[in-house]
Specification:
311 residues, alpha/beta, Rossmann fold, 42% helix
Length: 311
């Protein structure tokens, strides 16, 4: 009974919190509605996956993590397209505007990787430069486990790799409390507070405005929390071991990392990562930023990726 009353009290407290406030306004921003209108649809075995497919030329895939979506890369897509590339940006199942089917195992790392391979096969892309962030790293390691020949170049942006340096902002045990938390996120009760806390900690300075936040907030309020539930109750409590597989990877790889990230710290794993992937020091770029470097340094990241591909 006491546990139930505590939960109710927390919900009431969160409800009283002020909505997420915009800090600055920028002109000529991409709106979330226009971003969604540019998305195409792929029907996987588990549900519809929405994705951006823009431009012509060599293919670059931009893969988000948890709890974001392809919206995270909105500032990078057009600059890459204008540089002569075809850019593919999926909303993985359970995130963004993609479907959110029932169940939880459908959101496992292996299943995410299988669906991404299905998508790329459906749009006739045989190989690509692969850019990953956060939990997108886990889905990438699973993809490379079964189809390493698909990735020509690997670009690592503040991604989950080894247990060292991995300190997620949330960890839950599976069950009632985790389900209550997800319920609060999708019903607007704790959505604003969670996002504000996430970006306050994940950005050097949280200057995201209402237009920016809409692309992160709306999927949650549409009920996209099952993939989050799996990640925060399963993956975060038992991180898969990928090092033996990573040591076998042979494609060129580079690191672009926000050095002040408290969720994913590079320093404790940098030596092992460079050794395992044979990454030269010149291909390690440590930026004055935190976790969401696509929000903080999009232009710089684009230039680094282009230089790496062309070298």
């Amino acid at each position: 009974m006491r546990s139930y009353l505590a939960i109710v009290s927390v919900i009431i407290l969160f409800t009283a919190c002020k909505p997420y406030q915009s800090v600055t306004m920028r002109l000529e921003q991409t709106t979330y509605d226009s971003f969604r209108s540019d998305q195409k649809s792929f029907t996987s075995r588990d549900g519809v996956i929405k994705y951006i497919d823009k431009g012509k030329g060599p293919v670059i895939v931009l893969l988000h993590g948890v709890p974001t979506s392809g919206w995270l890369y909105r500032k990078m897509i057009d600059p890459l397209v204008k540089s002569g590339y075809r850019v593919i940006v999926p909303d993985m199942l359970g995130f963004g505007s993609s479907d959110s089917p029932k169940g939880y195992e459908v959101y496992s790392e292996e299943m995410h990787a299988q669906r991404l391979l299905e998508l790329m096969d459906a749009i006739s892309v045989d190989s690509w430069t692969h850019v990953m962030h956060d939990a997108g790293g886990l889905w990438t390691w699973e993809l490379l486990e079964v189809a390493p020949e698909k990735v020509q170049n690997l670009v690592i942006l503040n991604s989950i790799i080894y247990e060292e340096g991995f300190d997620p902002p949330i960890r839950f045990k599976p069950g009632f409390m985790a389900r209550v938390a997800m319920w609060g996120y999708r019903n607007g009760i704790t959505t604003n507070m969670m996002l504000k806390g996430l970006f306050d900690k994940g950005l050097t300075e949280n200057t995201l405005n209402k237009t920016d936040v809409e692309g992160y907030k709306r999927p949650l309020k549409e009920g996209k929390t099952k993939g989050m539930y799996y990640f925060f109750t399963q993956t975060c409590n038992a991180l898969p071991e990928y090092q033996p597989m990573i040591q076998k990877i042979e494609m060129p790889a580079m690191i672009i990392w926000g050095k002040n990230d408290t969720f994913l710290q590079l320093e404790p794993q940098q030596e092992a990562l460079q050794k395992d992937l044979r990454i030269a020091d010149k291909d390690v770029h440590i930026m004055e930023a935190k976790h969401f470097i696509q929000e903080e340094k999009p232009q710089e990241i684009v230039q680094m990726i282009l230089a790496f591909i062309k070298q």
